[in-house]
Amino acid sequence: MTVETPTRHSPLAAWQDTLAQLPTGIRARELPFLTQLTLRLRPGSPAARSVEALLGITLPGPLRAEMSGDVKALWTGPDEWLLVAPEGRQDRLVAQLRTAVGDEFATVADVSAQRTTLALSGHFARTVLAQGCAVDLDPRVTPVGSCLTTLLAQAPITLVVRDEADSGMWLLVRSSFASYLATWLVDACTEYRGSTG
């Protein structure tokens, strides 16, 4: 008996061509199927130090993201982080993290299927997002490394500022809101068609 492997479809698969045709000055593309793990433990604890040694990073504090390593760490709460890694790393990373924390109280959960990631860049990116987001996106207020859980056009997102030079950002959005957010983004860019980048 042959068992077929199910085909994976990203939440924004049907949007790739549309997103690729946004006006000059804003670029958007989906980063589908990234490994995403929720990590909960006490900051500064031996478990936290073991995890930091394993990942080669320092778990960031409030409203910050550590994006330097292969595994990115996004602060999502006082004792909670979202770890983001390349596709297909879930099983190995979960096992490594559970070994690292040992018998200490901590939880590691695979939440990779919950969200997709939209990468935005371009000099209009912050301006477009400001149309639907109450957070002040001025670079002086939300510099590189900022990690904010907020609403964009009433859709819950985690916004990560990655690159100042190109206004590079990640929007992590629940899969069920992804198409809605893509529709909003395309509509919000309408007034920039014909603008020079």
From TrEMBL:
Domain of life from the UniProt record: Bacteria
Protein name: Sarcosine oxidase subunit gamma
Organism: Streptomyces peucetius
